[in-house]
Amino acid sequence: MLVFLGLLTSFLSFLYVTAPFIRKFFAGGVCKANVQLPGKVVVITGANTGIGKETARELARRGARVYIACRDVLKGESAASEIRADTKNSQVLVRKLDLSDTKSIRAFAEGFLAEEKQLHILINNAGVMVCPYSKTADGFETHMGVNHLGHFLLTHLLLERLKESAPARVVNLSSMVHHVGKIRFHDLQGEKNYSRGFAYCHSKLANVLFTRELAKKLQGTGVTTYAVHPGIVRSELIRHSVLLCLLWRLFSPFVKSAREGAQTSLHCALAEGLEPMSGKYFSDCKRTWVSPRARNNKTAERLWNVSCELLGIQWK
């Protein structure tokens, strides 16, 4: 036992000594687009913290008018104030958006459409992760309700403005864990069998399938869409899991910073020449492989139709 503990201690010590070099290796791709955004309008959900905040910071730095759409307005105002001071861009605004409540989503969209005549970039960044079982205000399992259905409805409500502003882009944050996700149509709300970890994976698969189907429906409109894996990033999303919090603390020197995690979102929002890859999945600023389930057109179409039924909407 003492020998094992000694070896473990030596191994961890070695990891921490070499952490800066390991982190540099795993930092991933960097957005190299030089596009400036004066006069452009951007909406980012969950941009009061983490990846979304760093994405908002960079887009504001490039001159965009950035809307931070988040549930906690006070945190949003704090983030916006910091970004305005950092970028010298006064056009960083905060609006209330609770993706777990369709009334809040509709209220946000109504207010935004009354306020803005253009929308060039929508980044569906917000999300929840490994939550104990609960339901949204509308009775949806929380992961599927917030991560998928909430953004599905928001995109639907803002889509005409995106089309009117074309070329425009929709970026959906997913995750590599979509590889172990399934769309369990017989138990979409997790009432029969629930695992908080798998529930998150299922919702991330839904994000990829939504992106795939949305791209088909947007052909010829000038609006393109992309799914993104940001990497393993230090994030507030793990706050619901004690185990993940401990693992993150232990391995924190090796995971991406929020700024590094924002790079692929920025790439898909800004890089020129991505139009032919609409509907595809990106990681480290390049197109990458998705699971067989994420390539299933029948599942994507069925999920689309079920989502419309659950939300009571019809896409034109």
TrEMBL record:
* Class of the enzyme per the UniProt entry, highest EC level: oxidoreductase
Record carries keyword Membrane:
no
List GO molecular-function terms, semicolon-separated.
all-trans-retinol dehydrogenase (NADP+) activity
EC number(s) from the headed UniProt entry: 1.1.1.300
Biological or metabolic pathway of the protein: Cofactor metabolism; retinol metabolism
Instruction: Tell me which InterPro entries the record gives.
Output: NAD(P)-bd_dom_sf, SDR_fam
Q: Which SUPFAM superfamilies match?
A: NAD(P)-binding Rossmann-fold domains
Reaction it catalyzes: all-trans-retinol + NADP(+) = all-trans-retinal + NADPH + H(+)
Residues of the signal peptide: 1-19
Matching Pfam families, A to Z?
A: adh_short
**Keyword line:** Lipid metabolism, NADP, Oxidoreductase, Signal
Q: Does Lipid metabolism show up as a keyword for this record?
A: yes
The similarity comment for this entry is: Belongs to the short-chain dehydrogenases/reductases (SDR) family.
Fetch the PANTHER family from UniProt: PHOSPHATIDYLINOSITOL-GLYCAN BIOSYNTHESIS CLASS F PROTEIN-RELATED, RETINOL DEHYDROGENASE 12
Q: Tell me what this protein is called.
A: NADP-retinol dehydrogenase
Q: What organism does the record attribute this protein to?
A: Chrysochloris asiatica (Cape golden mole)
